[in-house]
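Translate structure to sequence.
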């Protein structure tokens, strides 16, 4: 049973898109002490940051030596060259944190993974076509997958410590964040501004299947609400959940609406993928000029856009969307309009002087 009167959240990866949105939510609602564990200092007022190297057990143990959180939210990962290394490093991050907190009375551990649980790791990404919508009871794929390794670490720690756990599987994350590899909103915002600056066409860069198929995304604010809900709802303990906006859409519907936000025209779909990583390989100087012209924060293109990750999401050749029935049955009813997910993120990026 989770003691909701003792609420000290340790957010592992508090400066990322998931962790920062969770920190903002907990602090806004009140009643939570929020500690962040990350390499960099959280800019969010009210978050006490403990800096460490998450991949180094001794560094993590030192940072957490005096901590007794009631709730641990693990939202961090570190991309590696191979899935074997992803398993070693990212499984190690979870193990380092939970080993450092042995015997400290942690009540609940929440882990954020994603739809690669169903689609496979980057090396074999979307090479199979699991039945849609994805449902939590679907069996693990036979591939190596660092999400599975991370899950096994929290299962083992929870059994050892007598704590509860939850696993949260968002789809593509949409929200405000800078320097985050998984933020499609920032990537598409930067792409749109480069198109506007150069007079280029705003072309959907992905596959015909993604252009036409039903899909969904996850607003980082919905994910934050879901994390808090599962951590404080006894009936939701010890379950894995999909978490998406609750709206199914097609990119051919959404794309011209994103273009309209930026005052540009969406191009006709070219009939084949035109990946951003290739199209914008030499766009660094253009972005630097946009930054100079509009007085933006001095971020290099590689910090504000992750073309490779957006290309991976939009280049899939299999249909991808998630069932939310399990969360609904347990009482989570929040919904988020998807167009607003993007435009709210764009608004915040503009307000922070990240995009013009």
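Result:
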């Amino acid at each position: 049973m989770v003691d909701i009167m003792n609420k000290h959240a340790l957010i592992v990866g508090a400066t990322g898109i998931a962790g920062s949105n969770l920190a903002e939510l907990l602090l806004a609602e009140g009643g939570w002490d929020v500690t962040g564990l990350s390499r960099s200092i959280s800019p969010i007022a009210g978050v006490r940051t403990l800096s460490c190297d998450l991949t180094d057990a001794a560094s993590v143990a030192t940072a957490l030596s005096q901590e007794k959180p009631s709730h641990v939210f693990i939202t961090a990962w570190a991309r590696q060259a191979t899935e074997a290394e992803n398993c070693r490093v990212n499984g190690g991050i979870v193990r380092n944190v939970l080993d450092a907190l042995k015997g400290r009375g942690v009540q609940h551990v929440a882990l954020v993974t994603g739809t690669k649980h169903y689609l496979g790791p980057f090396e074999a990404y979307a090479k199979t076509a699991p039945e849609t919508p994805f449902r939590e009871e679907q069996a693990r794929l036979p591939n190596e997958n660092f999400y599975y390794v991370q899950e096994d670490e929290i299962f083992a720690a929870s059994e050892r410590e007598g704590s509860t756990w939850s696993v949260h599987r968002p789809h593509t994350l949409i929200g405000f964040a800078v320097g985050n590899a998984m933020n499609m909103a920032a990537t598409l915002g930067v792409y749109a501004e480069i198109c506007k600056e150069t007079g280029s066409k705003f072309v959907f860069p992905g596959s015909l299947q993604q252009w036409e198929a039903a899909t969904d995304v996850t607003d980082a604010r919905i994910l934050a609400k879901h994390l808090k809900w599962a951590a404080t709802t006894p009936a939701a303990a010890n379950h894995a959940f999909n978490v998406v906006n609750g709206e199914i859409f097609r990119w051919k519907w959404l794309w011209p609406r994103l273009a309209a936000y930026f005052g540009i025209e969406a191009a006709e779909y070219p009939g084949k993928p035109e990946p951003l990583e290739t199209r914008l390989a030499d766009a660094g100087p253009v972005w630097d000029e946009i930054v100079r012209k509009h007085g933006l924060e001095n971020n290099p293109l590689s910090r504000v856009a992750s073309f490779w990750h957006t290309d991976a999401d939009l280049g899939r050749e299999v249909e991808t969307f998630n069932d939310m029935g399990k969360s609904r049955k347990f009482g989570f009813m929040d919904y988020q309009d998807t167009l607003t997910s993007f435009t709210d993120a764009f608004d915040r990026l503009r307000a922070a002087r990240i995009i013009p």
